[in-house]
Amino acid sequence: DSVGCAPLDVTINNTSIGALNCDWNFGDASSVSTCSSPITHTYNNFNPNPDTFLLKLIVENVYGCTDTLTQNIIVYPQITADFVANPDTIECNPFTVDFNNQTFPPGGNSYQWDFGDGSLVVNTVSPTHTFDTVEFSTVIFTVQLIATSQYGCKDTAYQDIAILQIGRASC
């Protein structure tokens, strides 16, 4: 069996001997007729649970004899990291931002946040973070969210947060 995260590229080496015709059914409503090797096929899964596809190869020799080989392909759901920062541009320093995690599918995941300001990485669903800088010009922090599903599938989302320094009073 082949197992992996969507999109899962599976490369199949056809080691059939004496095959004249080779019919591949990938189990996901797609098929191809070729004895060429290797063959690569991409499996997707947009469901919240693992999908199992039955890969089937039917070969036929010059005498009309056939043989069939099957293999299960297990595809874990694709995870898509995403988040919204509120607010995403601030004119005051320091400032606090609420991050709303919109990763799909939700639940059963772990999250790792890097706020791009040298602070410690946070492992929570939807954190709040305070940015602070001593700069007197606009500063941009790139926030990174790494989402990992219960199956070990990962995706990363990025968003820039800007501090616009309008001015400071001085004596």
Tell me what the structure shows.
This protein is mostly beta strands. Helices cover 0% and strands 50% of the residues. The chain has a 5-stranded mixed beta sheet with strand order 1-7-6-3-4, with no helix packed on it. Strands 9-14-13-11 form a 4-stranded mixed beta sheet, with no helix packed on it. Strands 8-10-12 form a 3-stranded antiparallel beta sheet, with no helix packed on it. The chain is rod-shaped, with a radius of gyration of 25 Å.
Cα(first) to Cα(last) distance is: 72 Å
Query: Largest sheet, described in full?
Result: 5 strands, mixed
How many strands appear in the DSSP assignment?
A: 14
Q: Which shape, going by the Cα principal axes?
A: rod-shaped
Q: Which percent range fits the helix content?
A: under 10%
Q: How many DSSP helices?
A: 0
Seen as an oligomer or otherwise, the chain set is: single chain
The helix-strand sequence is: EEEEEEEEEEEEEE
- With strands numbered from the N-terminus, the spatial order across the biggest sheet is 1-7-6-3-4
Q: Structural class per helix/strand content?
A: mainly beta
Percent strand equals: over 45%
As a whole number of angstroms, the C-alpha radius of gyration is: 25 Å
Which stretches are poorly predicted, pLDDT < 50 over at least 5 residues?
A: none
| Rounded mean pLDDT score | 91
